[in-house]
Amino acid sequence: MTTIAVLGNGRVGGNLATALTRAGHQVTAVDRAPGAAADAARTVRIVINATPGSGSLERLAALREEMHGKILIDVSNATVDGPDGLPVGLVYPGSSLGEQLQEALPGTHVVKTLNTMLFPVMTAPSTLTQTPTAFLSGDDPHAKHTVRDLLVDLGWHKEWITDLGGIQTARATEAAILFVPHVIRSSGFVPFAISIAR
User: What structural domains and CATH numbers belong to the chain?
Assistant: First the structure.
């Protein structure tokens, strides 16, 4: 059993918190109450960032002391959204939220994952008709191994998980969010994921 705090209790955070609790982990879902994120981060081993990506850096940078030595799983994408609420650009072109978080939190092991799919797929990958891919980006091999084990607990087969390398590779997966509005407009809000076919 792992102690986990999920920051963000919307559709993404709620979905992850429920699934990880069902898998046997001790999960705290954190709302926006003052001090709640700091209190939770201080007492767990892993923090999952499921907050809106455009505000994640400021929110998490304020937790630098509490996050020291912890694993931060970042599943958010920092986007500039259009009038319909769908992404039209990236907040950090030429970089990524994952990289920005690692720079702001040097004592934290940031791992980027699960950000190349609609949120229902994160915890039910086998419901897709084709095999999806979950990508890992991060500088610490042990942290990535821990995150890989959590993904397996969420229903991801090990062969569906691809380690891309260091945290700088997160800029590639974050850019994939720009597919999303076009796919949704073409096919509707139907669960899908980016997949590497071999």
Answer: 3-187 (3.40.50.720)
